[in-house]
Amino acid sequence: MVSPAVAVLERHLCLYRRLWRASAFSSFVLPVLFLVSFGVGVGRYVGEVGGVGYLAWIVPGVLASTAFQMAVGDSTYSVLGDFKWVRGFHAMRATPVGVRDMVVGGLLYALLRVESAVVVFLVVAGVFGALRSPWAVVTPVVAALLAVAVAAPVMGFSASIDHDSYFALLFRFVMIPSALFGGVFFPVDQLPQVVRPLAYVSPLWHGVELCRAATLGVAPPWPVWVHAGVLLVFAGAGGVWAVSAFGRRLRD
Amino acid sequence: MVSAVLAARVSPARVGAVVGRNVGALRSGPAYWLVLASGFFEPVLYLLSIGVGVGALVGELRLADGRVVEYAVFVAPAMLAVSAMSGALSETTFNFFFKMKYAKTFEAILATPVRPLEVALGELAWAMTRSAVYTGAFLVVMVAMGLTRVGWALAVFPAALLVGLAFGAVGMAVSTLMRGWQDFDLVTTGQFALFLFSGTFSPVGDYPPVLRVVVEATPLFHSVELVRGLAAGLPGWGLLGHAGYLLAMTAAGLWVAARRLERALCR
Amino acid sequence: MSEQPLIRARGLVKRFGDFTAVDGIDLEVAPGEAFGFLGPNGAGKSSTMRMIGCVSMPTSGELRILGMDPARDGARIRGRLGVCPQLDNLDPDLSVRENLTTYARYFGMSRARARARAEELLDFVQLRDRAASRVEPLSGGMKRRLTIARAMVNDPDLVLLDEPTTGLDPQARHLLWERLFRLRQRGTTLVLTTHYMDEAEQLCDRLVVMDGGRIVAEGSPRSLIGTYCTPEVVELRFPDGVDPAGGLEGIGRVDPLPDRVLLYTGDGDAAVAEVHRRGLVPSSVLVRRSSLEDVFLKLTGRTLVD
Where's it found, cell-wise (chain B) (predicted)? Predict the structure, then answer.
């Protein structure tokens, strides 16, 4: 007996087989291009940050940011679309597949995509000489935790809205500020004191700091268990929200 | 030739009707003012993050001509050009394609006396209207942060509109050639590659010579150079060359879009 | 086991806020039956179907599907149902075959079994030559057939069809009816909703007419006609300006419409003779057997619901 969540994952993979060409480029090649343009291009003017070259400093940030953006990307339009246009969730609802299976299947898919992109990126970063500690091997685990911490609540959001222009608000008020001020490009300490807490509540910042600690072999700003705990809370609460939002949407 | 075509066929009233439909459609979406207003915050956030945040790490930048500028001064005009590009492209590719393929908006419009070229111009005018508002607001922020002078900001304004116009026209032409959504990933990817390698974050002079030749042929490079030159208050003949490139791009884009639309919709 | 009803409802109610969609209905469907819900839009047919499909919980009343309680055993029940929803929800980007195999996996079937079942069903709904093509460009009739094939993928004990032929052209409808008839012959229990009278007469052994959330009549198509209608109907048209209504009294039940008058009677020809004997001169006369449509209009009225 295959678990229903795995059957849901298989549907995502089946769809991915149709669309992989374009998304392969955006998930494997673009992060590397970004690294070259920004890490190398801007890096030559920056000198050192936190005792290392800018490229080595920004690599874990770009890695976490890639996981973050892919997790968001896989849980917005496709989720709303499966409620609104394709009605794929309604099709599942008529079978033994439960609401929890739909959410878990979607998360598994996001995880697979994130992990494959992160591993490729890590190898490239290694070639650039930007990995400074054997602890770098744990970054895929951090990326997985970050992906679930982001994808789960975003799935809940996507299941709760009925018009896709809410995504523009999500991107502009939550996702883009996170990506820009979450410690990816410059240390959060540089932010004015008043806005710093906004970075602290973003799961991306916690993911970035854990990844950075791992690739540079240094201690993160807060204890590891606090960073990981924040991500776990996001993942858990997000999962509960997603399951209840899916259930509400499919109930009547 | 294009102007003759325009004069013979285009009715401003009908173009206006196409724009009016967009205004109405926008108002029907939820929280539309918020969505509209948030379009302005996006480039400002980029400016604060890259210009100010990363700028603090970079300090000052020595340009090829020997001038030394703050990183924010260097990067802000590029942000403006990028935002003009992406605003125009999102309106004329993603939204335009949706209306053409799925919403059947254009088929409905073309059942009336409105002509395909008028549809194209109306859609472009709409994209430009939004772009003008965002550009103006961004320039106000630049002046307030001391990244350019008021007088030069007034010169940058039409230049940024020209950037939007050129990308909008090409975007529309590209939309008519699209087979499906999967092709849009190519557009997005191309757009992102331009964003990364058009002298946006670091001077083109730093690039390896081969890459430099390629970059200097691409449209965002000319956009960034034009906007940056004017914002820095350094007019020169070179800027006319960049402007000419963008004008040619506009004309070519419009011509292809109108022809393709005519063929696709008036069978 | 075989005599236990597949569906048993007592006092079934569904409310959405203040609106009562289903207002206390009782019904039983036995194995092998083809059972229809007939009614105008908004009569509560789809809400009832969704409760039977265990995707919507009853507000009150008792419901047993396959002898189980939907509130407790929803997933187990759905595992033995086949559902063809009113709105297609196929995966437009997947191929015809992939739509069947991915759906089969939702029921926990092995990959090999899913593939084999998909092949059988492709033949059954005559989509073999489109198996590898994407779903999006298929015609409405093909999509419907695929949806029905998908509903059969788990070899269900009970198939639910919500307005299976709405929006299809006549050829596609007839092909679909023929396929559904084959299902009936195999002993599959069908429950369907429709507002097409010909569909109900073609496919159903037994049906209920719903209106305003209640069951207003129940029986086989013929018995409903026998109970609620006369065997024959005469349709009379008169020249403009002639109002014959008074002159027809006593011949049969008279139903005056804006463009014609319907006369319900046991013997159409005798009624026409009587009309002529009374000196009335209609401009056209049509005698026909009464249909379920006459029953339907009598029971649910002629007022448009939406």
Answer: Cell membrane; Membrane
Of residues B229 and B115, the one with the higher pLDDT is: B229
> Which is it for strands C189-194 and C158-162: parallel, antiparallel or unpaired?
parallel
Q: How many whole angstroms separate alpha carbon C115 and alpha carbon C122?
A: 11
Interface touch A165/B48, C-beta < 8 Å? no
Q: Which residues contact A31 (CB under 8 A, 6 or more apart)?
A: A62, A63, A66, A117, A121
**A91/C contact by beta carbon, under 8 A:** yes
Residue B26: the pLDDT is 61
Is the pTM for the entire model greater than 0.90? no
Sequence-distant (6+) residues with CB within 8 A of A126 are A136
CATH match of C230-289 with 3.30.70: yes
Confidence of residue A18 (pLDDT cuts 50, 70, 90): confident
Chains that touch B (3 or more CB pairs under 8 A): A
Q: What is the CATH number of domain C7-218?
A: 3.40.50.300
Residue C168: both structure tokens together: 């299809």
Determine how many CB atoms are found less than 10 A away from the CB of residue B267.
5
**Any residues with CB less than 8 A from the CB of A88 and at least 6 apart, and which?**
A11, A81, A82, C89, C91
Across the interface, of C90, C91, C107, the residue whose CB is closest to A95 is: C107
At residue B43 the predicted structure's pLDDT band, cuts being 50, 70 and 90, is confident
Select the residue of C53, C91, C108 nearest A94 (Cβ to Cβ).
Answer: C53
Contacts of A44 in chain B (CB under 8 A): 202, 206
Band (pLDDT 50/70/90 cuts) for residue B32 is low
Determine the Cα angle at A204 with ends A176 and A211, to 5°: 135
Name the nearest CA neighbour of C103 among A87, A77, A79: A87
> Percentages helix, strand, coil for chain B, rounded to the nearest 5?
80, 0, 20
Three-state secondary structure call for residue C18: coil
Question: What is the rounded CA–CA span in Å between residue C295 and residue A130?
Answer: 80
pLDDT at C36 over 90: yes
ipTM of the complex: 0.89
pLDDT digits (tens, 9 = 90+) for C15-32: 998 999 999 999 999 999
Mean pLDDT score, B102-114: 68
Question: Residue A92, class by beta-carbon neighbours within 10 Å (0-12 exposed, 13-18 middle, 19+ buried)?
Answer: buried
Residue in B35, B53, B182 nearest the CB of A165? B35
Q: Which residues contact C181 (CB under 8 A, 6 or more apart)?
A: C202, C203
CB contact (8 A) between residue C89 and residue A96: no
The rounded distance, in Å, linking the Cα atoms of C39 and C228 is: 15
Contacting residues of A for C109, CB less than 8 Å apart:
2
CA–CA gap between residue C289 and residue C233 (Å, rounded): 6
Q: Which of A89, B95, A95, A83 is nearest to C79 (CA)?
A: A95
Question: Could you tell me the CA-to-CA distances from A115 to A93, A148, A237 in Å, in that order?
Answer: 29, 12, 22
Separation of alpha carbons C106 and A94, rounded Å: 10
The residue type found at A15 is L
Full domain range(s) for residue A39: 4-251
- A88/C contact by beta carbon, under 8 A: yes
Q: Contact, A66 vs A53, CB < 8 A?
A: no
Question: Which residues does chain A have within 8 Å of residue C66's beta carbon, measured at their own beta carbons?
Answer: none
- Which residues are bridge partners to C12 per DSSP? C25
pLDDT digit string, tens, across residues B231-250: 988 888 889 999 999 999 99
Percent of chain A with pLDDT over 70: 99
Query: What is the average pLDDT value for chain C, to the nearest integer?
Result: 89
Domain count, chain A: 1
In chain C, what are the helix, strand and coil shares in percent, each to the nearest 5? Answer: 35, 25, 35
Q: Which amino acid is residue B203, in one-letter code? A: P
Enumerate the domain spans of chain C. Answer: 7-218, 230-289
The 8-class DSSP code of residue A41 comes to I
A1·C108 Cβ contact <8 A = yes
